[in-house]
Amino acid sequence: MPLIRRRPRRATDPTVVELQEIQRLIELLGSIPPAGAYAIVAAGAALENVFPPVPSDTFVLLGAVLSDRGGLEPVPVLLVAWTANVAGAMSVYGLARRHGPDFFKRSWGRRLLKPHQFERVSEFYARYGLWAIFLSRFLPVLRVVIPTFAGFAHLGVLRTAIPVATASVLWYAVILYAGIFASENVGWVIDRLGTANAWLLAVAVVVLLSIAWWWLRTRRHEDPDEELRLLEEDLPPPGPE
User: What is the mean pLDDT of each run of 10 residues along the chain (241 residues)?
Assistant: First the structure.
């Protein structure tokens, strides 16, 4: 039985169009074998770590709706979304850990983050990395950026994986419960989820602006010999006389 009833809306209402698209997605996922539906949920959860606009929350929510209607099982939906999301985040972390330090030693990278700034980033992660990663997983955009820089800063694998995994399972569990609890009002749940993500995005923007302010401010407090060292490193080695 529907938990919340809404007044009828006109077919031209953008919300009606959106709900029709959501219903078509639900029907599409419900029409394919369960293994394919689980794979789509997993792909959406993983791709978010590479391309943040991918709506991984919506994929999990749709999986929750199908689990309530008998097409899927709730625990596998949670497990495949969680596993894929953590695997995607740790893959990006691994690439950043392997190639990041060399990137920031080259001419373009070291101008993006000067050596003394890179040292401060590493010190920040050594002190607050666990909590920074955990909290960032609830914030759009930052949920991708913060773990990536954990790789750049060579933060330990476990110190990165534990907060990523913990935050991801908590977030997806909430979305799964919401989808099951209100599967007959999935549009209402998506509206509320969109509102929540809008507020979280506002918080993320404030954090990003703070990071930008730190970046501009710290560039002025550098070693006076640093620019000379960078210039010398860019110069080609002297040839034979």
Answer: 44 47 72 87 87 77 81 89 93 86 64 71 81 85 82 88 93 86 67 77 84 76 50 48 44
- The rounded distance, in Å, linking the Cα atoms of 85 and 89 is 6
Residue 132's closest CA among 100, 163, 161? 163
0.85 exceeded by pTM:
no
Question: What does each C-alpha distance from 26 to 59, 153, 174 come to in angstroms?
Answer: 10, 41, 19
The answer for residues whose C-beta is within 8 angstroms of residue 31's C-beta and 6 or more apart is none
Domain ranges of the chain: 14-227
Residues near 49 by beta carbon (within 8 Å), at least 6 away in sequence? 85, 88, 89, 91, 92, 143, 144, 147
Cβ–Cβ under 8 Å, residues 136 and 143: yes
22 touches 187 (CB < 8 A): yes
Q: Which of 53, 73, 196 is nearest to 188 (CA)?
A: 196
HSE at residue 76, side-chain half, CA atoms within 13 A, is 14
Length of the chain: 241
